[in-house]
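Narrative of accomplishments. A recurring question from our advisory board has been how the design workflow behaves on a single, concrete structure rather than in aggregate. To address it, we present the structure tokens for one chain from the evaluation set, followed by the sequence designed for it. No filtering or post-editing was applied between the two.
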């Protein structure tokens, strides 16, 4: 490794330590009204800790309407017991910081390889603190770490990549999308088979450990239109034209209730189906692959599903930042402009929550404008991401050019991070 890259890695390490210290300081002062008055941290010491009390007795909180997660979330929420010298809250935060460290180390190691870039590790290091202390008190950092590990290991060990994706999907579903960009046919088979075997065996173990492992599916079906979703933004705008609905706390989030809400929810589901169709069409039509194709496809897929979802919580930005960071480890990625848009959307998300969330709840012009800007950026990012993915995959291959020689070379290299 040359001296310049060593200096960049040192600067990256120092930046990570400084920004994480700042995030911990913000968490320690989260009771301040400017930081949400303690609402942000309540998720751990209130909700997660309550679920922990159920999980330790071998059950999932199946009858709790706030439980909307696959059974793999159980071990994550039980993990603070591994640090008995700390309170549940302290142990949860410590494990989240550890998962964050694993993520940045994985990105840095991938970016330090010849022909790669450290921009991905830099984006994760500098992008996550834009969400203030929120990432420290949500388990989305742990899920994102599994998705990052899956993508980074795919080229060298497809089986390991598939296994990480399956484990992530059992914790929060969306990491299953990271396998979308694997090659079709025999070349991509090991990753999918590994994911299937790991997922099935892990689900069987979770079914033995916990009662009602699939109860989350019923709770998901009852969700409405969250105020921060794209549909919620449309309803917020409609309120200024006389729509009589209002925001209410339901299923762990602020959702709109009133006329036409169910229609907006059905429209969101229809758009999700359209997004799935577009992704299938790309996979069928794509003929050209690069080293970055799996990364770009993963980001595009998760972006499309996020934008069309009935719920867009602030912590969803953690997923998108992690996937964008993986894209930027490759110099072949088509998603650099998308990463810039995501950084802007993340910044606006923080202005919304926790800083001006009441404005969004009350559908004031300030809150509505903030949501139009944030979701406009996300919609722009999703459209641009898919367009650039499509163009990079369907552009004609130049005569005599070989598709992704480095990826094929890496696939013969022993498994490594």
């Amino acid at each position: 490794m040359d001296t310049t890259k060593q200096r960049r890695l040192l600067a990256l390490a120092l930046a990570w330590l400084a920004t994480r210290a700042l995030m911990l300081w913000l968490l320690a002062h989260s009771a301040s009204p400017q930081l949400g008055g303690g609402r942000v941290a309540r998720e751990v010491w209130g909700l997660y800790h309550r679920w922990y009390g159920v999980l330790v007795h071998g059950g999932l909180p199946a009858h709790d309407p706030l439980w909307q997660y696959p059974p793999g979330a159980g071990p994550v929420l039980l993990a603070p017991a591994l640090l008995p010298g700390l309170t549940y809250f302290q142990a949860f935060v410590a494990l989240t910081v550890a998962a964050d460290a694993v993520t940045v180390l994985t990105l840095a190691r991938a970016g330090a390889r010849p022909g790669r870039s450290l921009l991905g590790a830099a984006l994760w290091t500098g992008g996550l603190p834009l969400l203030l202390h929120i990432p420290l008190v949500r388990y989305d950092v742990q899920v994102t770490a599994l998705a990052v590990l899956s993508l980074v290991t795919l080229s060298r060990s497809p089986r390991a990549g598939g296994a990480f994706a399956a484990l992530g999907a059992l914790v929060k579903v969306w990491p299953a999308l990271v396998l979308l960009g694997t090659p079709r046919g025999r070349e991509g088979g090991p990753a999918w088979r590994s994911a299937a075997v790991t997922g099935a065996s892990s689900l069987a173990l979770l079914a033995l450990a916990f009662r009602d492992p699939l109860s989350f599916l019923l709770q998901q079906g009852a969700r409405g239109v969250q105020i921060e979703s794209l549909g919620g933004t449309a309803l917020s705008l409609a309120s200024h034209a006389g729509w009589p609905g209002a925001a209410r706390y339901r299923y762990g989030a602020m959702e709109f209730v009133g006329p036409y809400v169910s229609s907006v929810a059905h429209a969101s589901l229809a758009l999700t189906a359209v997004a799935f169709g577009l992704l299938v069409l790309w996979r069928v039509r794509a003929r050209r692959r690069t080293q970055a194709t799996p990364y770009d496809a993963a980001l595009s897929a998760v972006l499309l599903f996020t934008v069309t979802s009935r719920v867009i919580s602030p912590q969803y930005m953690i997923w998108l930042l992690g996937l964008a960071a993986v894209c930027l480890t490759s110099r072949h990625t088509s998603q650099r402009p998308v990463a810039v848009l995501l950084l802007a959307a993340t910044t606006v998300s923080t202005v919304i929550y926790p800083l001006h969330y009441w404005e969004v709840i009350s559908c004031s012009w300030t809150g509505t404008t903030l949501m139009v800007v944030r979701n406009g950026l996300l919609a722009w990012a999703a459209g641009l991401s898919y367009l650039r993915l499509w163009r990079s995959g369907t552009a004609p291959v130049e005569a005599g050019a070989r598709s992704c020689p480095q990826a094929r070379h890496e696939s013969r290299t022993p498994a490594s991070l």
